[in-house]
């Protein structure tokens, strides 16, 4: 029988098991690291050729030791959360708060409207009162093609939403639902299933055809006044604010085929709603769990802990990865280990998508024990003004000049001017006294698309590492900005990602210097049979085995783990190095000289790394393995001649 306290709680917090094994492993690895550092400090070669290389190795190992300590901050006591949605329904079903959902897009070619509308339809179909949902599409590119896709979605929603409710289907993205399995029609009659599928595919074909042609049929433009907002002079970077309500949830005509109220559907945020809870999702990250809102509200409405919680973050999951994850894009260990560890320290990171916020915290609200949320606002305050009048009022809010000389982007809203504005926004929220919660339900809440090529992977990690390193070197450094505001454990947790870029230098040094053989007569590592070899071997083996253990527990395969380790090295000497250099250049005012990561850049980098032994033989070695000078000069001459011929050939064409 439940106690009074258990009946009152809407969620439970449970410690993740296996901590005793982890702590024994961590203690022994720490001892091994100390022995390695002792070996370096007590056996420094005499002044000469090998001393500088030895000290460099010692500095790299000291860096790795410090970084290892930082990574342990999220592994000491991770937690998992469990919600009780039945208790939420018993107490609050008649008084559930409104939720505003923001979907962001920018380019109809990079982010096809057919992809965007599947995400839109998935969040419109939540297992939640439709009249309390408002869905906003924020299109930075101001594309008429995206607006057309949204208009098509507003028509299809009248069929799709009743279908989702009638058969309680998952997922509620039509693209994902119809692609996952043909067996879904067992839930309903084959005739109805085929009808809805055909309607969806016909809609998708119309949208894709419009994108390919770059034009909207004239007869379609006559069906909604919103198409009149576009003219031939508009571009993606120069257009007036456009605010259009495609489904007005207050209108008597806004109903689906079953007569149920449809969620409000809006292009660009406006004055239409002011709900106390905000969800933001990327346009390629569809809702995969129709109960995600209710799970989040179990934290916001819990009688004991809700007043502390500023946002609820769900993990990023992908549906396009191979079983063994060849490019190492799985976030399984981050999702299952590191984010849970951050949660135990008072706040997981805000990762920019799949996150529910209190609206007030995005408006700069500081935590106060006396603060009381008005969960009823947003619904009751949606007035009776004509929707056209509201659209006109809202246009001023959508202009790029609205926030000039204000606190928007600084103290209010998402912080600007950083490649990872989500992380710095979450840090600011934590430093204002709020905590966050990491919710990882059994069925993934959101599913998106991972980078599908090596170039995309390198580029994504370059952007992440650069952004986090920029934060580390700025006034928002967690040890400075967070001092006295968040726990030391959480400060260290943020730095795991803040130091990704900086890890590139000691990694490259540690890999290249021994390979180049720059130390003569004084090896950089103890002989394999020496007792001093034991701590080196032990630290390497135990850390590797524990990495494998974490990966397997998190859902990776053995080969997938190996691919992740391989890509870990590739990213450290490419993505993180490029991110480090770009960050330093920006600090020095040389931002126009930033790297542009392309497939050629990546290929050249990998070729250089693969040929390090040849460069060593050409320019470094002085023994019998050295390439003769005439051969070196001839190869350089041949290379220059080939480059000149290539240049002349291209110039002719």
Automatic annotation (TrEMBL):
One of its GO terms (molecular function) is cellulose synthase (UDP-forming) activity. It is a multi-pass membrane protein. It is found in: Golgi apparatus membrane. The active site is at residues 140, 422. It comes from the Eukaryota. The keyword Transmembrane helix applies. GO terms for biological process: cell wall organization; cellulose biosynthetic process; plant-type cell wall organization or biogenesis. The chain crosses the membrane at residues 20-40, 52-70, 494-512, 532-552, 597-615. GO terms for cellular component: Golgi membrane. Belongs to the glycosyltransferase 2 family. Plant cellulose synthase-like E subfamily. Thought to be a Golgi-localized beta-glycan synthase that polymerize the backbones of noncellulosic polysaccharides (hemicelluloses) of plant cell wall. This is Glycosyltransferase 2-like domain-containing protein.
């Amino acid at each position: 029988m439940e106690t009074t306290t258990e009946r009152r709680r809407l969620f439970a917090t449970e410690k993740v098991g296996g901590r005793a094994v982890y702590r024994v492993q961590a203690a022994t690895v720490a001892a091994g690291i100390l022995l390695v550092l002792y070996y370096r400090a007590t056996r420094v070669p005499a002044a000469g050729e090998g001393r500088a290389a030895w000290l460099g190795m010692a500095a790299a190992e000291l860096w790795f030791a410090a970084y290892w300590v930082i990574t342990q901050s999220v592994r000491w006591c991770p937690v998992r959360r469990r919600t009780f949605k039945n208790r939420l329904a018993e107490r609050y079903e008649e008084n559930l708060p409104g939720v505003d959902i923001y979907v962001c897009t920018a380019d109809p070619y990079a982010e096809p409207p057919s992809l965007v509308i599947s995400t839109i339809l998935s969040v419109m179909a939540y297992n939640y009162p439709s009249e309390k949902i408002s869905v906003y599409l924020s299109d930075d590119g101001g594309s008429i093609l995206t607006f057309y896709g949204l208009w098509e979605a507003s028509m299809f929603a009248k069929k799709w939403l009743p279908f989702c409710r009638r058969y309680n289907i998952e997922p509620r993205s039509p693209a994902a639902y119809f692609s996952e399995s043909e067996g879904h029609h067992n839930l309903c009659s084959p005739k109805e299933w085929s009808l809805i599928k055909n309607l969806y595919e016909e809609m998708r074909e119309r949208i894709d055809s419009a994108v390919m042609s770059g034009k909207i049929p004239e007869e379609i433009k006559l069906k909604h006044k919103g198409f009149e907002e576009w003219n031939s002079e508009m571009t993606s970077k120069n257009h007036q604010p456009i605010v259009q309500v495609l489904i007005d949830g207050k209108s008597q005509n806004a109903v689906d085929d079953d007569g149920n109220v449809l969620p409000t559907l809006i292009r660009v945020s406006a004055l239409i709603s002011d709900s106390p809870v905000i969800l933001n999702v990327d346009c390629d990250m569809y809702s995969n769990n129709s109960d995600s809102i209710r799970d989040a509200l179990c934290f916001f409405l819990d009688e004991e802990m809700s007043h502390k919680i500023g946002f609820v973050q769900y993990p990023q999951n992908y549906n396009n990865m191979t079983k063994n994850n060849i490019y190492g894009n799985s976030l399984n260990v981050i999702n299952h280990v590191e984010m849970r560890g951050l949660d135990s320290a008072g706040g997981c990171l805000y990762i920019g998508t799949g996150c529910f916020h209190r609206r007030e915290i995005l408006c700069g609200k500081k935590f106060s024990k006396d603060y009381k949320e008005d969960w009823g606002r947003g619904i009751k305050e949606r007035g009776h003004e004509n929707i056209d009048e509201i659209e006109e009022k809202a246009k001023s809010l959508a202009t790029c000049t609205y926030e000039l000389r204000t606190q928007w982007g600084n103290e209010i809203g998402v912080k600007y001017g950083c490649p990872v504005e989500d992380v710095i926004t979450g840090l600011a929220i934590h430093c204002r006294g709020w905590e966050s919660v990491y919710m990882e339900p059994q069925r993934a809440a959101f599913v998106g698309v991972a980078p599908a090529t090596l170039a995309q992977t390198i580029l994504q990690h370059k952007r992440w590492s650069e952004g986090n390193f920029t934060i580390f070197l700025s006034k928002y450094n967690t040890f400075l900005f967070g001092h006295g505001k968040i726990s030391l454990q959480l400060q260290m947790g943020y730095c795991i990602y803040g130091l990704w870029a900086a890890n590139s230098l000691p990694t490259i040094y540690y890999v290249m210097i021994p390979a180049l053989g720059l130390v003569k007569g004084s090896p950089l590592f103890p002989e394999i049979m020496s007792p001093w070899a034991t701590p080196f071997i032990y630290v390497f083996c135990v850390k590797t085995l524990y990495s494998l253990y974490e990966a397997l527990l998190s859902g990776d395969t053995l080969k997938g783990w190996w691919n992740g380790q391989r890509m870990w090295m590739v990213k450290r000497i490419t993505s993180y190095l490029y991110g480090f250099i770009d960050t330093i250049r920006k600090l020095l005012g040389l931002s126009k000289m930033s790297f542009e990561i392309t497939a050629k850049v990546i290929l050249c980098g990998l070729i250089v790394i693969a040929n390090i032994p040849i460069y060593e033989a050409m320019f470094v070695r002085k023994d019998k393995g050295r390439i003769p000078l005439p051969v070196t000069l001839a190869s350089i001459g041949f290379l220059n001649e080939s480059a000149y011929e290539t240049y002349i050939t291209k110039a002719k064409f």
